[in-house]
TrEMBL record:
<feature type="domain" description="Putative amidase">
    <location>
        <begin position="253"/>
        <end position="413"/>
    </location>
</feature>
<keyword id="KW-0732">Signal</keyword>
<feature type="signal peptide">
    <location>
        <begin position="1"/>
        <end position="26"/>
    </location>
</feature>
<feature type="region of interest" description="Disordered">
    <location>
        <begin position="175"/>
        <end position="208"/>
    </location>
</feature>
<dbReference type="InterPro" id="IPR024301">
    <property type="entry name" value="Amidase_6"/>
</dbReference>
<dbReference type="Pfam" id="PF12671">
    <property type="entry name" value="Amidase_6"/>
</dbReference>
<protein>
    <recommendedName>
        <fullName>Putative amidase domain-containing protein</fullName>
    </recommendedName>
</protein>
Length: 421
């Protein structure tokens, strides 16, 4: 009798659980499908037309032709749209002068959220874009394409029975983590004696592409750590003892492992690490990504208090604090390299090689330190530098393009040391 009652109770619980699960799923589907499919398709189409017109100009240099080829731009009332087309033309001309160009592109939007309130619609979507380089004017060893993911928010207004795009913004604009859900990270004072690198001077030595300056490849695990050591120790809850350093040939640098990591995780982050692109106004994932790649390349952990700029580590256990500020914040990372030299600053960005690092200060007049960190993914035989970074996620963007889109910024080029103590 008891066994029958238990069986009945178990079946009842399963039924209740199934009903609850079905209700939750129904609520989720209701929320997802609350906007008619034809309306969603129309809004996405208008938003994609805005993006396509901009990339069209980067390829063709023809603003009016781009509008004709993307007729739904007639439904764009965003005051900044025309300015973006003009900027795209300026970028094309600037890159052409440096023998860089695009021949085609592919772009699409994946909807993350869509809400309609009255006559206003808000569309949050992820743009996935490949831009194919014009290899007829570029070095034969240039990459085929530049790839990237960008998070957008598009706002529409219903005028009569027609939706019109009235504004758009990038949600993951380049920038470093400025804090965690528990605390903000204060900026460090900038040392006036540190001289920024010249972003446009030609290379003093036209070193070849990534394979010419690297050692033999190594296998990299899903955590981004070389497989010679992949077992972090337990961590202290007080932020003073962390995962054991990974040692490769006595702290020697493996550039090939770094480059492998960049290409594998530039677009899609390594799920074994926390993703700081989701911290909203607290910043982005750029320095976290760079730290992961350097760890894969053999940089050893420096244990100690997480706020100290002389330490650098990451803890996989999930116990707070989960990493040093130098691991996730561009300014603290910059100070870490100064405090524990693992790289040297050089006078010209063009003298960097694949696996090297660039720190960026977007607004030096504010004296609030570095705000972005990125790495060199490739260097072609004609000296063109290509970049990999997060927030937004990019691989094989030319430094020339990044420079053109960052007016007033100062750049600090770091040449990584092949070994250090």
């Amino acid at each position: 009798m008891l066994s029958k009652r238990l069986a009945f109770l178990g079946a009842s619980l399963v039924l209740i659980g199934s009903v609850i699960s079905s209700n939750v799923q129904a609520q989720n589907n209701s929320k997802k499908n609350s906007v008619p499919a034809n309306v969603e398709a129309e809004l996405v189409s208008i938003a994609e037309s805005a993006l396509r017109a901009e990339y069209d100009v980067q390829v063709s240099g023809d603003e009016e032709g781009a509008k004709r080829r993307n007729p739904k731009v007639s439904k764009i009332r965003d005051a900044k749209f025309q300015k973006r087309l003009e900027k795209a033309k300026e970028l094309k001309d600037f890159l052409k002068g440096r023998k860089i160009g695009f021949k085609s592109f592919q772009t699409k939007l994946e909807v993350k959220d869509l809400k309609i309130a009255g006559n206003t619609a808000t569309l949050d979507a992820v743009e996935d874009t490949d831009r194919y380089y014009d290899l007829s004017i570029m070095s034969p060893d240039s990459p085929e394409k530049s790839q990237g993911l960008t998070e957008h928010r598009f706002t529409f207004s219903l005028q009569g029975n027609q939706w019109e795009l009235i504004s758009s913004e990038i949600l993951n604009y380049p920038g470093s983590t400025q804090g965690t859900p528990k605390e903000k990270i204060p900026p460090l004072p900038m040392d006036p004696n540190i001289t920024p690198s010249d972003p446009l001077a030609p290379p003093t030595d036209k070193q070849s592409s990534l394979t010419s300056a690297v050692v033999a490849p190594v296998k990299v695990s899903k955590t981004g750590l070389p497989t010679v050591s992949n077992n972090p120790n337990k961590s202290s809850a007080h932020g003073r003892a962390y995962n054991a350093p990974v040692k490769i040939a006595q702290a020697s640098l493996n550039r090939q492992a770094i480059i492998q990591y960049l290409y594998y995780y530039a677009k899609t982050p390594n799920s074994q690490y926390r993703d700081y692109s989701m911290t909203g106004n607290l910043g982005g994932d750029c320095t976290n990504f760079v730290s992961q790649a350097l760890k894969a390349g053999g940089w050893t952990s420096e244990q100690g208090f997480y706020r100290d700029a002389t330490n650098w580590w990451y803890d996989f256990s999930g116990i707070w604090p989960g990493e040093s500020w130098t691991w996730i914040n561009a300014d603290y990372f910059f100070k870490f390299i100064l405090n524990r030299p693992r790289a040297r600053t050089i006078g010209r960005v063009a003298d960097l090689v694949p696996g090297d690092v660039i720190s960026v200060d977007f607004d030096p007049q504010n004296n609030d330190g570095m705000e972005h960190t990125m790495m060199v993914s490739k260097k072609t035989n004609d000296g063109v530098i290509y970049l990999a970074y997060h927030t937004p996620n990019r691989i094989d963007v030319t430094f020339s393009e990044f420079y053109d889109k960052s007016p007033g910024a100062k750049f600090y080029a770091w040449s990584l040391l092949s070994s250090y103590k």
